[in-house]
């Protein structure tokens, strides 16, 4: 039998893709499946962005680019960051990445090793914990609680930091809960972090424009005292419906940017050139498609909350960001993953069980409202009929 490195046995995965595969398989058998599981917009990439990629191909942009990304793409990120946060960063601190996960991989492997501790949100995006365990570091969950509006608590987060803590991972607006942490809580966290100058921070801000009800995303970039240890994760996937383009960006401190550049040289060389030109068009072009998409998500969000709260033994906090709801199903008598599996197999509705996002996800299911209002209505009718049975 082949002998493999133990780290690969520690690695987890993102179950949303397994659910997607099963839902696709059932649909291929002729089943009517409504997918509220996958975290991607159901809108097409805006046409002007697609055309920019086609033009780049026709103009001959077929070769390698710098490992950090082409300068015009990095400058576009600088402009976008200034517009959304009021902070001007240098293009030399920007990395164009093949999606959001490579930033997670780079940051976590940079600080994770046996004996180190890395704090991450629970429930949270599953790759955080998976990559922490891959490095041999100890994953330390930061509880994300329903009673706190699915925002992190600064006091609780700070209480978990020890002399072994190397990295703190934050995510707001959040996957899977749709929680948005208020500025007052972030202010308190940043103030408390002054006592821990050697702890790096990775702030996953991929859903930064996706907020509702007057909520505003607070970027960690707006705190100058963090700049020498702050990694920002962002990208094009969610905002411009570009999940399949595999295009992200990250912003790094001066002391780390060359390390991640070398990782890129070793791992993926560079991001494909036409996608980078598409990314420039996304940032600099018209934003009406983004506004249309967000208005649709907002309408669907209200449908989800109203309909889910009307189901027997189900309650649903109103999400303030992203395109997910995280209904509480503890009173149904079902374990969350078993309920999600049964709903897919028996009712034709694909959802993700809360434990796929962490230990504290038990009792919840993640529902993506990145699907049509009609399909959401049909899906919740099926869920209700199943629970009544």
TrEMBL record:
InterPro entries: Aminotransferase_I/II_large, AspAT/PAT-like, PyrdxlP-dep_Trfase, PyrdxlP-dep_Trfase_major, PyrdxlP-dep_Trfase_small. One of its GO terms (molecular function) is pyridoxal phosphate binding. Its EC number is 2.6.1.1. The keyword Cell membrane does not apply. It catalyses: L-aspartate + 2-oxoglutarate = oxaloacetate + L-glutamate. One of its GO terms (biological process) is amino acid metabolic process. Keywords: Aminotransferase, Pyridoxal phosphate, Transferase. Gene3D superfamilies: Aspartate Aminotransferase, domain 1 (3.90.1150.10), Type I PLP-dependent aspartate aminotransferase-like (Major domain) (3.40.640.10). Its cofactor is pyridoxal 5'-phosphate. Residues 32-383 form the Aminotransferase class I/classII large domain. Belongs to the class-I pyridoxal-phosphate-dependent aminotransferase family. PANTHER family: ASPARTATE AMINOTRANSFERASE. This is aspartate transaminase. It comes from Oricola cellulosilytica. The lineage of its organism: Bacteria, Pseudomonadati, Pseudomonadota, Alphaproteobacteria, Hyphomicrobiales.
